[in-house]
Amino acid sequence: MFKFFKRRRRPDFWKKHIEVVQNSKKYNNFEEARFVVLDTETTGFDYENDRILSIGAVAIKNNKIQVSDSFEVYIKQEVFNKETVKIHGIRRDGTEIKVSEAEALVQFLEYLDDAIIVAHHTKFDMTMINKALRRIGGGTVRSKQLDTNFIHKKIAVEDRFKKMYSLDELCSIYNVKKHDRHTALGDALITAYLFLKLTYRYKKNNILDIDSLVKTNYQLGS
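The chain above was modelled as a monomer; its predicted structure follows.
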């Protein structure tokens, strides 16, 4: 008689993430929530073969960007793609202090805590992070997620079925200045400004309810 495979044991950092999300506070209004706006720089767009080079993030609370509550980490390059260096500028032998993929992800989850994730084209960043987490024994991030492109489509009804907008295009539409473009922390800050403009525009004609803006999580399995 065959024995069933034992359920895979998850590492402590992952158990902590699950516990934090499960015990997170239910916010009565938008202003009370802590949002973490993130961006990743990667070696490319292949979920299986490319890797994260850096993660940058900044928090928003009470409709204000909390610059003192930010996060940035660079990851040692096990995979190198010289073609994408011209975009992100991160070199294998660069001067940035780099840590292992596992250490970077543990640091990020500790920083994230029970915040709501915000990103532009959330699916890409979160799929890359979730793939990396699975490589070190974790699962998919359980935090609520918001996508700036999704929020734009809720505001601009006429654009709902058109193309996916780039960050540059939405910055032009909402008059957001672009500084330090194509660094993870720089793009996270740009996205944070965009998010504030989007939510300000959205709440003019709608009740600003977190659940109504939550982008469906892209689960890759737990």
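The two ends are 28 Å apart (CA to CA).
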